[in-house]
């Protein structure tokens, strides 16, 4: 298994994996997510791949087939005048093919993202996890992440 920057040739596999992660979210929040859809279109993925601020890292097998990805966004902080300026690498989406889970690919991909963040001069790596996605929460906690803030909602 190797981890590298995503290429345009990876888009079909990335779309398949996007469907897998969307289904997890749709199972947790059917009031928000539409099963069978993906977060991005082919054209949107092509644009994301061109942008240095939105790197996508892929884990590929021996045949150079994508078995996992991490969509990232380089962000400049702060959100207000009372915060120290710093860079953050936000993991927008991370998925390992359901057929390849349990092989420590997610751990390798996460470590790769952390190393990239260090090289980019980031202060932190952040992400959001939907309440109810307990396997993701456990994975990220195992990787050393801790809760930074909580977003709450009131559904009308």
From TrEMBL:
Signal peptide: none annotated. Residues 1-156 form the N-acetyltransferase domain. SUPFAM superfamilies: Acyl-CoA N-acyltransferases (Nat). The keyword Transferase applies. InterPro entries: Acyl_CoA_acyltransferase, Diverse_Substrate_AcTransf, GNAT_dom. Keywords: Acyltransferase, Transferase. This is GNAT family N-acetyltransferase. It comes from Blautia faecis.
């Amino acid at each position: 298994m190797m981890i590298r920057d995503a290429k345009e040739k990876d888009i079909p596999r990335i779309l398949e994996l996007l469907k897998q992660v969307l289904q997890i979210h749709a199972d947790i929040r059917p009031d928000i997510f539409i099963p069978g859809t993906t977060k991005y279109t082919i054209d949107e993925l092509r644009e994301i791949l061109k942008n240095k601020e939105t790197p996508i890292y892929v884990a590929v097998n021996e045949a150079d087939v994508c078995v996992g990805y991490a969509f990232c966004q380089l962000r400049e902080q702060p959100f207000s005048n009372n915060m120290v300026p710093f860079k953050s690498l936000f993991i927008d989406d991370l998925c390992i093919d359901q057929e390849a889970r349990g092989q420590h690919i997610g751990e390798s991909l996460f470590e790769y993202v952390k190393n990239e963040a260090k090289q980019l001069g980031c202060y932190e790596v952040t992400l959001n996890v939907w309440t109810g996605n307990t396997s993701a929460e456990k994975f990220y906690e195992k990787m050393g992440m801790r809760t930074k803030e909580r977003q709450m909602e009131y559904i009308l």
